[in-house]
Structures are given as C-alpha cells and as structure tokens.
Amino acid sequence: GIELHRQIDEFTDSHLVVLESKKRLRAKYRHYAPVIVDVFYDHFLAVHWPTLHPKSLSDFATYAYLQLENHHPILPERVLQMMPYMIRGNWLVNYEKTEGIHRALTGMSRRTPYESKMDKAVHD
Known about the structure:
- The structure is a single chain.
- By secondary structure, the chain is mainly α.
- It has eight helices and no strands.
C-alpha cells in the first residue's frame, strides 16, 4: 500500500494539472503550496468518492484504518506517529468537508518551523 501510494504521488506530482495547481498557490504559500494542493485534492477525492468507489467513504475509511492497525509492525515511524491522530480525527472522511481540510491545514501550519499561512489556505 505504501509503495502504491508513493507511485501515485510520483505520477500526480509530475502531472501538468497538478503542477499548474501548485504554480497558482506558490506566490502566496511558497514551498508549502504542494502540501496545500495535496490536501485540496484529497478534499475533491472525498467529495467525489461516491462516483469513484462502490463502498461508502466511511466504510472505506474504517477498512483503511483497520489495515493500518493490522500492519503496525511494518509501518514507518512517521506513519506510526501520525496514525492515532488520523484515526481519531477520521481524516479520510473529514476531508470531505471544508472544515475538515481547514482543521488539517491549521494543524500542519502549527507544526511548520516558518510561517506557512496554511491555516488561511482553505479560503483559496
């Protein structure tokens, strides 16, 4: 799953549409633009989920969280640190709502060493 995720990221990160999205945000958010674009695209994925997958987003998220917990011993340390917050906050489902992406971007903004303005990005 992690390898597939990395392959998908590699594909999307080099896609012309994604590059244009990052370019639109770069002046305001500088090197945080790619992070913001990823969250925005997660939002669009969640919003359009019913047209993309037969399972409900909620059922899929429950399954995904269970898979993470079942594979705890092989997960990278960064995933293990983030996982409890992801599950407790039900990120996969909450990205469907603007409030969910705002909460995610605000949390990331608090953890950045420099002013990122990510907490304001939801307005864009």
